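Support case: adenosine-5'-triphosphate complex. Customer-provided input:
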Amino acid sequence: MTRTEPTGASIIFENVGKSFSGADGTGVTALKDVSLTVDAGAICGIIGRSGAGKSTLLRMVNGLERPTNGTVLVDGRDVGRARGAELRAIRRDVGMIFQHFNLMAQRSVFDNIALPLEIAGIAPARIEPRVNELIERVGLTTHRDRFPAELSGGQKQRVGIARALATKPKVLLSDEATSALDPETTQTVLTLLRDISRDLGLTIVLITHEMAVVRDIASQMAVIDGGHIVESGPTYDVFIQSAHPTTRSFLSGVTGVTLPAFLSGRLSKQRNAGDQQEVLRVTFAGPHATDPMLARLSTDLNVSVNILAGAIEEIGPHPFGNLLISLDADRGAEARAYLERHGLLTEVLGYVR
Ligand SMILES: Nc1ncnc2c1ncn2[C@@H]1O[C@H](COP(=O)(O)OP(=O)(O)OP(=O)(O)O)[C@@H](O)[C@H]1O
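Agent response - structure generated as follows:
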């Protein structure tokens, strides 16, 4: 399909708060003073732990939740205050896909995708070509007449994506859409979403608890913790400049770099008597991604460094490296300070003899 000019909508959260009243009368504050701008045509990843407020934030974009304070604007329209026909119009502009697909078991692939068009009152003669086009876009031409029970998870999500696109929305919301899929299928679904964003100019907001998903697809991101946005910005900038412990803990799990088994079994979190080596994860990014910093560390501080595992990956066009190293535990603090001073991130994984 050819590339078209962006047709996505911007989404602006301005000082948004949301409180719920619990069954016992006590209040739950799900979001506090959230301000975030998602550019038209961007793919924005929102990452946070369970209960952080991700779903609440996402559901405000299509008016399923209304803010207690503040404003949510989609394409300049105030979703929280919209009612009736105006709210329905905004909702037509916002499609959504779900972790468990939410397909209708009694309907075929074709009929699931046709459903939003039927609800919108589109004439059957116009529905058929539109659904066929969507089926082709998501690569399910040979599965047109199958039922959800006859599809794999990845195929079900493709149906979910086609259904969400049926009414030509400007925004696609993804609620943990790849969390129920294996890593390989996750990649194919992320690729499809990226292609759709590129070809249709659609704005995509996806919530996830997996940093790898954000790394692989998002142009911008926000980290949410306890109802607050603790960091946000272009994905690469957040990856290389992250300062908040929540972001760092998500980052530490993002690479495929793991300790060799013979070492991980012996690693202790606290340094015990006799532990000689400190094991570190060192993250290289930005202007230092390709610098020979470990060689410099050895030379400048006269510390021997053992490289245990490592990889250089890319976020968009930018290099992002991860190394697992060990060094003399007595010199650990000094070495970490040196590396941090040169713009690298360090994390102590533990100690070994
Ligand atoms: N309708 C509701 N009534 C009361 N409390 C709610 C309601 N919806 C959400 N909450 C509370 O708001 C907080 C944020 O919930 P939310 O579902 O937005 O988090 P989340 O980050 O999406 O979590 P998860 O990843 O587990 O889905 C939680 O403490 C939750 O219990």
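Residues 335 and 341 are 10 Å apart (CA to CA).

Case will auto-close in a few days if no follow-up is received.
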